[in-house]
């Protein structure tokens, strides 16, 4: 259930990433295609935005699973596997929705034209932001729930000691 839910969240995450991620501006010249401005900074910003969105989805998923799933190990495994699969799906959805490759865009453009570069991840490690955040928050939430249940179960033991 958790893996399926994570996959269901992957497509909207990819859509949001596509809508808000900055794209590199490129220009076609006689001697090739060149970046207008800082292409590397744009790539880092797109990667960072993907990571932040993944962390947000991971935190939400972890809180939901901690409160709704009774089997702790199954929930944790679902968060880890589902987070990776959901991230990969989000990445692919954003890439497909984004502009085509620079070569394809340049082939259709005239010399001097400016166009958006493709949306892609330059650091594939950000795919693990979602499952890592989900795992950490899940452990914290389960620990908090377990300590709350333990405190409720023991009652006030100070009364009989004096």
Keywords:
162 residues; 5 helices; 8% strand; disordered C terminus; single chain; mainly alpha
Strand order of the largest sheet: 2-1-3
- What is the percentage of strand-forming residues? 5-15%
C-alpha end-to-end distance: 51 Å
Mean pLDDT: 87
What percentage of residues falls in helices of 4 or more residues?
A: 55-70%
Any idea what the shape is? elongated
User: What is the N-to-C order of secondary-structure elements (H for helix, E for strand)?
Assistant: HEEHHHEH
**How many beta-strand runs?**
3
Largest sheet: 3 strands, antiparallel
Q: What's the number of helices?
A: 5
Describe the structure.
With 162 residues, the protein is mostly helical. It has one domain (2-153). Helices cover 67% and strands 8% of the residues. The protein contains five helices and three strands. Strands 2-1-3 form a three-stranded antiparallel beta sheet, with helices on one face. Strand 1 (25-29) and strand 2 form a beta hairpin. The longest helix is centred in the first third of the chain and has 30 residues, at 39-68. Mean pLDDT is 87; it is low at 155-162.
């Amino acid at each position: 259930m958790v893996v399926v839910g994570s996959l269901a969240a992957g497509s909207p995450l990819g859509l949001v990433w596509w809508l808000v991620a900055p794209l590199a501006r490129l220009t076609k010249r006689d001697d090739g295609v060149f970046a207008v401005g800082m292409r590397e900074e744009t790539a880092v910003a797109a990667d960072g935005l993907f990571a932040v969105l993944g962390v947000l989805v991971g935190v939400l998923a972890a809180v939901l699973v901690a409160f709704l799933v009774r089997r702790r190990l199954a929930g944790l495994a679902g968060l880890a596997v589902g987070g990776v699969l959901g991230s990969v799906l989000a990445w692919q959805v954003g890439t497909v929705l984004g502009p085509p490759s620079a070569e394809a865009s340049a082939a259709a453009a005239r010399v001097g034209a400016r166009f958006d570069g493709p949306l892609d991840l330059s650091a594939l490690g950000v795919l693990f932001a979602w499952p890592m955040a989900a795992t950490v928050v899940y452990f914290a939430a389960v620990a908090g729930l377990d300590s709350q249940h333990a405190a409720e179960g023991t009652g006030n033991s100070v009364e009989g000691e004096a």
